[in-house]
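Bit of a strange request maybe. I'm writing a small parser for structure token strings and I need a real example to test against, not something I typed by hand. Could someone generate the tokens for this chain?
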Amino acid sequence: MALWKESSYMLWKQVSPYCHMPHSLKFWDHAFQAATYLINRMPTSVLGMNSRHLNLHYTESDYKFLKAGMPGNMLNLFEAVKKAQAVVQVESGRIQKELAAAEFDGYCEGELIKVTLSGNQQPVRTQITEAAMELGSEKVSLLVTEAYKDAHQKSVKAMKERMSDIAQSLGMPPGFGDAMK
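Reply from user aminoacidic:
Good idea to test on real output. This should exercise your parser:
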């Protein structure tokens, strides 16, 4: 979903200056046709970072349709979106690998229990001290949940920071990456 928001924002950022200018209907027909064409070729995490076009046709997009007869401003839009696609795809793959290798420790109150999660929010290990065991099963259960929530919060925060870095590298305004969280 974040990739969709990023790519649709980039598209809107390029097209919005033209929204209040008097253009012929032919321009808007072409603009929306081009936007639809590009959106169907955006990679999405739901499809394993493939585009809808790739999954349907088993071929990479050649964008010949857009390049033929494209006005200069639309060509710039096309190039900007294509560049953003490449950056998002490379960066998100790198971040996923980074997060998979990372571990985040969460603690309960008093640090009686420590839970470790991977960057993908997969449980790695749980350490329970002898002092925690003496508190009884009900209390231990609450403390494990508290530690798990702490580790999860740290993991999600790290992921959001990485995604915000991608948004900034694409030239999005400060705070836009926060809106995607």
